[in-house]
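User: structure tokens for this one?
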Amino acid sequence: MASKIPSTQFSTLLVPLFALLGLGSLAAYGKADDAHTAAEWAHCRDLPLTWQIYLSAYGSLACGVLTLALFWWLARQARGRGTWVGHGWQGKLALVAAVLDIPLLALQLFVVWYVYQPAPGGPISCV
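Assistant:
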């Protein structure tokens, strides 16, 4: 019978991968928001938000939630086998990623909330 340890180790490495994807999506949101602001000033009027802003904001939030959900699932699987999720270096890396993802998740929630807020400076006018 095949051992499930290699697949468990691979699954454990998905936790930091999703955390990094969430961080990358936040960086993409920052770039998309800067480009949107520059386009608004270039056109001297308010423009609707682009799909890149929505995709990066919600994608980042999805990666953050998936990071914690996957770590929780792996921890429950390990507890069911009578082991600890942080047994190997992969588990320790996943534990660090999950702990660092908690404040990152708060930032991701704030970004999604901020997408729906009106512009803080009011409408853009070049007159």
